[in-house]
Design brief:
Low-confidence stretches: none
Shape: globular
Order of helices and strands: EHEEEEEEHHH
Structural class: alpha/beta
Helix content: 10-25%
Radius of gyration: 18 Å
Number of helices: 4
Length: 203
């Protein structure tokens, strides 16, 4: 796709868009100075695509500039990562420890996602650092009728070098092209006298 206005029609079932590794670049003025904010056309078209039922896989990037989903990168790099979902599509074909020490240089992630705390985002894989498990190399978000997977695990760079990277990439594509059940809201009862606490839960 050369123009964000050319995004496919999501009326067809299981329409998957993959943003290849390194495909997103900061929006730059003709003077060469990066702009503050996002590429409005990119954001508008991607939001429309996903909210109307599209499936989006964002592979490892240097920037999320222009993405409208409220997910940000933190610059952290890891050699070990840990799945929070042990059974199901994510770990199919993977063993304990397979998200660690990938060939050829042991790095599993770069420029990891800051672990989301709101907005409906769900961390599927986490990694650690000075601030404990505050990074999330793999995050799922379901805006509207669609679904987005943000993956900062180096599957694009390592799939030919480490079998686990190839398996994870395959699992993500299989998941996004399958009949994904709609996310359902479960009722919850909160007992608290602290309005700030209930507001935090609502977010």
């Amino acid at each position: 796709i050369k123009d964000w206005g050319q995004l496919p029609d999501t009326t067809a079932e299981k329409t998957l868009l993959v943003i290849a590794p390194g495909a997103l670049v900061p929006h730059v003025r003709p003077s060469g100075v990066p702009t503050v904010g996002t590429d409005s056309k990119r954001g508008t078209e991607l939001a429309r695509f996903v909210s109307s039922g599209g499936r989006l896989l964002v592979l490892e990037q240097e920037t999320y500039d222009g993405l409208p989903f409220g997910v940000s990168l933190g610059g952290h790099t890891s050699t070990y990562a840990f799945p929070l979902v042990r059974n199901g599509w994510l770990t199919r074909g993977l063993k304990d420890g397979d998200l660690s020490l990938w060939q050829p240089d042991h790095y599993v992630t770069e420029n990891e996602i800051v672990r989301p705390t709101g907005g409906g985002a769900r961390s599927l894989v986490v990694s650690g650092g000075d601030a404990q498990l505050s990074q999330a190399p793999l995050v799922e978000l379901r805006p509207g009728k669609g679904i987005v997977l943000f993956c900062q695990a180096l599957v694009g760079a390592r799939w030919a070098h480490d079998p686990a990277a190839a398996i994870l990439l395959r699992n993500m594509v299989d998941h996004l092209t399958s009949g994904i059940p709609e996310a359902s809201a479960s009722p919850a009862v909160v007992v608290s006298d602290d309005p700030a606490f209930t507001d935090a839960l609502a977010r």
